[in-house]
Amino acid sequence: MNITALTGTGQQTQAIGRPSPLLSVMAWEFRRFLASRLFWFQALGLFGFLLLMTWALHAPDQFSAGVSRGGGGSGESLSGFVAGTSTGGLLHTLPIVLVVLVLLLPFLTADGVTRDVHRRTHELLMTTALPTWAYVWGRYLAGLVISLGLALLLLASILGMGGLLHLTITNYPVPEIGNVLLLWVGMVLPATILVSSFGFALSTLLPRLSTLVKVVIMVAWIVGALVIPLGLGNTTPPAWYVNWDPTSGITALGILPSYSINLGPTITNEAQLQQLILSVENKMPDIAGWFAPHLLLGGCSLALVLVAALAFKRSRDVLH
Q1: What is the number of other CB atoms lying within 10 angstroms of the CB of residue 264?
Q2: H or E segment at 201?
Q3: Rounded Cα–Cα distance for residues 261 and 275 (Å)
Q4: CB atoms closer than 10 angstroms to residue 241
Q5: Rounded to 5 degrees, what are φ and ψ at 30?
Q6: Rounded Cα distance, 141 and 144, in Å
Q7: Beta strands of 28-122 (E only): which ranges?
Q8: C-alpha–C-alpha distance, residues 182 and 198, integer Å
């Protein structure tokens, strides 16, 4: 926004630049986050816990098989494991680890606007010249950027711990960065945007029920990511559910059969077995069917934020 001022008799013009109200609101929010010791404690605690989980789930699928030698019927027992940071391993572990991130996101984003209502500073802010759209979208975008930063911590924990395990455990493969990024973009990124958008929009529309909104989001995600996949067992989920599951729990369940390992007669020692596992576990994931719907879910959730911004009232009853 520019204000043109006329100076002196020479009718000279001077442009006085003012910062965008949207950027100003975002800057306020960033300063609040960065000044909060609790936020830094949460971020560091999350990163440490993600590293611990990645280490604990470094071999989510282990198996052994007997191999016959010669014609005398003697045999040898072979064992192998699927690395938790490989593509096949992440399909086992990523929906579980993602739950940890999702449990934290509503507490970072849902109260962007509701906080002012609860603190009774809402009416004071609304007496300023700050546009409503800048106030709502600025709070949302700042929270979303912080949430995406936490999602990047999840990515860093996978790559970092995967590299460390590669150096310390025999036959542990180094993470395939391209495959890990693909799963992160297809599963973690849309989930982060979706949860951040739903939490913020619903809490803005229903400020008196903001706590309930957080609880519902967390419970729904746990049910979708953990309970339902366990309940299905070996049942093949329908294709539409695999493609449109926002938690990626069912999505991973639908992709995993392509990473099954079948031992052939040529496998006679553990080195050959681990080489077979390596060739299967690091295959490029098949993104046909589920990748675009996941991104679409994340993008469509922005529409709910738009609804919240349009329905937002500059004056409302004060909470009691």
Answers
A1: 7
A2: helix 189-205
A3: 11
A4: 14
A5: -65, -40
A6: 5
A7: 61-69, 74-82
A8: 24
User: What are the residue boundaries of the structural domains of the chain, listed by start?
Assistant: 24-311
88 near 82, Cβ under 8 Å? Answer: yes
Return phi, psi of residue 157, to 5°.
Answer: -65, -35
The secondary structure of 209-263 as a DSSP string is GHHHHHHHHHHHHHIIIIIHHHHHTTPPPPHHHHHH-TTSHHHHHHHGGGG----
Taking a C-beta distance cutoff of 8 angstroms, is the pair 53, 17 a contact?
no
Backbone φ and ψ for 318, nearest 5 degrees, come out as -75, 140
Write out the chain's pLDDT in tens, 320 residues.
444 443 444 444 344 456 788 898 899 889 988 898 989 999 999 999 999 999 999 888 777 666 555 555 555 677 778 889 999 999 999 999 999 999 999 988 888 878 777 777 766 766 677 788 888 899 999 999 999 999 999 999 999 999 999 999 888 999 999 999 999 999 999 999 999 999 999 999 888 898 999 999 999 999 999 999 998 877 888 999 999 999 999 999 999 888 887 776 667 677 777 788 888 888 888 888 999 999 999 999 999 999 998 988 766 544 44
| Spatial contact of 253 and 232, defined as CB atoms under 8 Å apart | yes
Task: Calculate the CA 31 to chain-centre distance.
Answer: 23
Within 13 Å of residue 301, how many CA atoms lie on the same side as its CB? 22
* Phi and psi at residue 15, to the nearest 5°: -95, 120
Could you tell me the two tokens for 319? 């909470």
Please provide the DSSP assignment of 248-261 as one string.
Answer: SHHHHHHHGGGG--
